[in-house]
Structure prediction request, 210 residues.
Amino acid sequence: MAKYQELADSIIKGDNVKSKDIAQKLVDERVPAVEILNDGLVPGMDVVGKKFKANEFYLPEVLIAARAMKAAMDIIKPLLSESGAETKGKIIIGTVKEDNHDIGKNLVGMRLEGGGYNVIDLGADVPAEKFVEEIKKNGVKLIGLSALLTTTMIGMKTVIDILKADKETVDVKVMVGGAPLNQEYADSIGADGYAPDASGAVDLASELLS
Ligand code: B1M
Prediction:
């Protein structure tokens, strides 16, 4: 639909004023937040990701697109839970310690929210102990770890090892993702699953929580 295309285009162009205005307009028109997310924001950011991979976009374009996405997300986020988006369960996500890359993780979080999960996003550069503390506090059964640096991805193993050593958290499932990872690495650190992209993360979450 044209209104969603306009929103997607504002993300692709990195126009944070426009993305915020369109999101607000759609909310005022009582368009469900989950529809704004799934039909406007996520497709827009998907295009940005593809253009980046194809070397059609460079870092500045990715960063301003992420800023435009955040501006619109700030409008719809409070409404996502009201639209029934928490019914499938809670998932904690975060980028591991000493890693500040959060664009992909945010995309994964958006997709999970759009897929009906209540996402608790701990942000980036999250120490292993913080994951464990929040898992216990919120009683979650699944966490998602992101890493973009070859030097930080080992931090995922640290989280998994701590969880496995504690009988309170031994059954918590861990899914991992990020550009330097692959299935083989995920298996080697004892992760329960690996997803190469944000939509794969939604399928994997559903599998791991079933
Ligand atoms: Co950084 N950086 N960066 N960086 N950066 C990379 C990762 C790098 C590959 C660039 C390069 O050299 N070619 C390189 C890493 C090399 C390596 O480890 N071998 C690198 C480096 C070296 C660094 C610094 C060390 C640079 C420096 O300061 N010297 C520094 C580190 C800072 C730190 O974290 N401590 C740094 C800093 C930065 C910026 C701050 C400038 C910025 C981050 C901004 C931000 O995130 N807020 C940045 C960016 C943007 C990049 C690149 C260009 C793009 C990453 C990105 O956002 N991609 C990146 C180059 C590249 O990836 N080709 C690079 C778009 C995003 C949608 O994709 O994150 O892959 P991605 O997420 C995907 C999938 O991976 C997957 O789904 C997402 C959507 O499809 N996925 C998951 C991600 N997490 C998942 C979790 C899941 C499932 C799927 O389940 C839980």
Notes: The first helix runs from residue 2 to 13. Residues 96 and 126 are 5 Å apart (CA to CA). The chain has nine helices and five strands. The longest strand covers residues 90-95.
